[in-house]
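Structure ticket #2291
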Amino acid sequence: MPPFDNVFYEIAALLAVATAGGAVAVLSRQPLLVAFLAVGILLGPAGLGWVSAADHVDLLARLGIALLLFVVGLKLDLHIVRTIGPVALATGLGQVLFTSVVGFLIALLLGMSPVTALYVAVALTFSSTIIIVKLLSDKREVDSLHGRIAVGFLIIQDIVVVLVMIGLTALGQADEGSSLGYEALLVLGKGIGMLLVLALLMRYVLAPVLARLARMPELLVLFAIAWAVNLAAIGDMLGFSKEVGAFLGGISIASTPYRELVAARLATLRDFLLLFFFIDLGAGLEMSTLGARLGEAMVLSVFVLVGNPLIVMIIMGFMGYRKRTGLLAGLTVAQISEFSLILAALGLSMGHIDRDTLGLITLVGLITISVSTYMILYSRQLYGWLAPWLTVFERPMAHREEAVDQGASGDVEMLVFGLGRFGTGIAGALRSQGYRLLAVDFDPELVRQASGTDYATHYGDAEDPEFVGSLPLEQMRWIVSTVRDAQVNRALLLALRGHGYRGRIAMAAHGDAEARRLQEGGADLVLMPYRDAALEAVERLIRVDRGESPTSIANPLEAGIPVAYGSS
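Resolution: structure written out below.
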């Protein structure tokens, strides 16, 4: 019997244990996601049995999922959808087809019946959008090229799994007169209708409504939460998943000026509610049936952890993306989804598979989710180890990534990494003084936004040694990094040293210890954005106090320099 007869007490206990588990994970340098899954297993039916109010935990989990996908949709405006759409569609469908076919053959070789093998293969196909987006958000990689592509093909997967579940439900209702073709056409019609209604709302309603609500930030945030949850509910009622509905809700207001404000206000609430998703997922695992088929689970888990990233890398390499982009995107499909468990439960309820098969799929989910979490969090180190063997996945010219570049970069003397607020301000000020420069960012949208400036822009990752080596380093007098990530700056220093760069280096730091490490690593100048801004502000105050002009090059707005606002 659970120790609590009051839901409030139970939720309080869950939060206390989750906080303790999270603290242990942080101290032992383990991912929080894995810690929360472990808390769910510990407190669920397989452990202490504390999670008795499953409906309440599940409700909080679903609210967290809706807000997560809504925030992801907020970051994707229509231009990005058009840009990423082809590779997301090709990669998503290609990976689904590959995993289904090869997984089916592996399941047959393991001695499963054709129907059981089909369910196992389809369950291996789908990756967890919720888990991946959370990990990418924690690493600040949702806005990177590989992050946008990964989100795109994960959404494609979600749509496919919805269609598969509709098909299975239709087959199960065949004796009641339903037909698969009718169900598919009905869902298609509903989907088109929902998109048309959203398009009309985006065009005529949402912008003026948000403009009025923006005067009251609290009401704007409440509207955003209500919009996310209601779109998720409508998507579910129309036969789609809640994830797809919430994602479309985010896209519907992504082109408005208020998306950054809404996303920032919802981030903390989203992370809090997602805690219940991971606890609920761990508590729902059927631990009693896991041990009997451990050998089969290991074979299938290795296939998911290795085979899924490989097929993504092959497809993206064929389409002209660099091997690093392919690997980082491919790692996001190295696990199975919570949808896989739902699909297996549906098959069990329809009598297509037995409880042992459900236990097998559950065990594969537990293994792949845990291992892939480490693979994604340590993807930088993983790429460093595997890079020499990944060239086979890359075409000689990565034309897809070159396509986002703007302007000519042949005659430049300065290189600026980072096109956020700080980086764009520095680039504009340098250009106004006559310097020829090239600006680089790993967010293709920021590269596009900077295309209207009079300096060359380039898509690329400062942490990729091969990309750094492809730049015209021999003609650079200065390389300036405005990137906020200390690890990226240290990797850039190592790459520049490895490629024999002889010019000067300036890097941004956000603390004295970090500044000392960069200087010891070879940086000639360390920029402290907040401290430098404070000193400049004091100088301008003193000038005004003395009756002098406050205008300076350090103030690009007063100097007439255009500034683009980004995230770096």
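Closing remark: The first strand starts at residue 414 and ends at 417.
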